[in-house]
Write a structure and sequence with these properties.
13 strands; Pyruvate-ferredoxin Oxidoreductase, domain 3; binds iron/sulfur cluster; 7-stranded mixed sheet; 19 helices; alpha/beta
């Protein structure tokens, strides 16, 4: 049992599964690194049997979507301010097949990740289906006669993509030294571990050893080193240019906007978390309005989340967006009972009826054309929480929600109007009907 990094000796895999050998090898290799603490290691796992290992490690662990573990790990590497952290990605041949592009891209960019693909030549968790790595002739649950074509030589492919180190081995109880080499390598390092799934692979291919399967398939056990690999992509080199590309808001935030200083930072204001729902019709700029509001709040240094909701028929029916604005980090992005509802079309009203029923407090900004339907539906609504204006008539259907947002901001002062106006200009340019949107609906 590993003393420090692998928290248990009782691993959750089927008896004889190669995953147990790899996990123990990782634990031993980590234990052998002088001065390394579990807090210095981030284990990123994929969907599949290997994904259930993460709870056994005493390190940071993150479990991603199927095939996306390397993309997730790449994001962590590029966003992490401490380049000393070790990031280990554990995935199966199914995850590697689904996320092949992410794997090749990370190798090509020489991101500092240590990737271990557990290649048992089938999808174990879902019943033993073949992956792109399944060798020719290997029997799987949906191909009992054996796979017709050859599996991909992943080590050769990753090396060709530019990885400084790519290795293949067979799962064994003595593989910690090889994993140690992987962990000690600079930049991107890749290890494919050939193993057997005892629940599916062994049953369907009785009597075949991993070594024999590898030999038959021409999968050499080897280490490929690329002396001409590009220098490791590290945070300090990438981050500024990424910021430049990602968002003009981020640039402006870095520079410090004039209204960031002007915004009211009194504790009663800044401690708030406000959830705002924008509801309207498809094609009437609902998502864009929410985006503009969200970016205005971001430019003031606030935390923001935005979620869109619309039918699969994106050109017809309702469109709804939830924006949460908070001084504190947002841990949960739900807005079950929003503080503010902005409604500018019948589709939108129909969609948020449930929310109106659940409300009982908060504010509603409603387009004037919807008042009869609103009263019919919610006759008991208090007028104190209801603002009715001709947003559609004044600003047009496509800008009605922006007009409602500007009315809300002017009335409640949650964000400086300058920030909102600047966000509109960034999204829509100078040609927008800004005067109508920014009209003083309180006058
Ligand atoms: S189903 Fe196969 S891959 Fe999954 S734990 Fe069992 S032996 Fe291992």
């Amino acid at each position: 049992m590993s003393a420090q990094f692998l928290a248990t000796d009782s691993l959750p895999f089927c008896k004889g599964c190669g995953h147990s050998l790899v996990a123990k090898g990782i634990g031993q290799a980590l234990d052998a690194i002088q001065g390394l603490s579990p807090r210095d290691v981030i284990v990123v796992t994929d969907i599949g049997c290997i994904g259930i290992i993460d709870k056994e490690f005493a390190t940071h662990t993150i479990h991603g979507l199927h095939g996306r573990s390397i993309a997730l790990a790449s994001g962590i590497r590029l966003g992490l301010e401490n380049p000393g952290k070790k990031i280990i990605v554990l995935l199966g041949d199914g995850g590697a097949t689904i996320g092949m592009q992410h794997l090749l891209d990370a190798a090509h960019r020489n991101l500092d990740l240590k990737v271990i693909v557990h290649n048992n030549m089938l999808y174990g968790m879902t019943g033993g289906q073949p992956s792109s790595l399944t060798p020719c002739g290997y029997k799987t649950s949906i191909m009992p006669e054996g796979k017709a074509d050859a599996g991909i030589d992943l080590v050769a492919l990753v090396a060709a993509a530019g990885a400084p180190m790519a290795m293949r081995t067979i799962a064994s109880a003595a593989m910690s030294a090889q994993i140690g080499d992987l962990l000690a390598a600079e930049g991107f390092a890749f290890l494919e571990v050939l193993e057997l799934c005892t629940s599916h692979g062994v049953k369907l291919n009785p009597g075949k050893s991993v070594a024999a399967i590898a030999k038959e398939a021409g999968l050499e056990l080897k280490i490929l080193r690329n002396p001409h690999a590009s220098p490791a992509t590290i945070l300090t080199e990438v981050r500024p240019s990424l910021l430049e590309k990602i968002s003009p808001i981020a640039r402006e935030w870095q520079r410090g906007l004039p209204w960031t200083q002007k915004a009211d930072r009194s504790p009663s204001n800044t401690a708030r978390r406000i959830s705002i729902v924008l509801a309207g019709s498809a094609g009437e700029g609902v998502q864009t309005s929410a985006e503009i509001l969200a970016q205005a709040a971001m430019s003031c240094g606030l935390h923001v989340s935005k979620k869109g909701s619309y039918p699969v028929t994106v050109g017809i029916g309702f469109s709804m967006a939830e924006v949460i604005i908070s001084e504190a980090p947002i841990r949960y992005t739900g807005a079950g009972s929003p503080d503010v509802l902005l409604i500018c079309s019948e589709d939108g009203l129909e969609k948020v009826k449930g929310l109106l029923n659940a409300k009982g407090r908060g504010m509603v900004y409603l387009d004037a054309t919807l008042e009869p339907a609103f009263r019919r539906f919610l006759g008991h609504a208090s007028d104190a929480s209801l603002q009715i204006r001709a947003y559609r008539e004044i600003a047009g259907a496509k800008s009605a929600l922006l007009a409602a947002v500007s009315h809300y901001l002017r009335r409640e002062g949650e964000l400086p109007l300058e920030a909102f106006e600047a966000s509109i200009r960034r999204h829509m340019g100078e040609k927008t009907n800004l005067d109508a949107i920014m009209k003083d609906f309180e006058a």
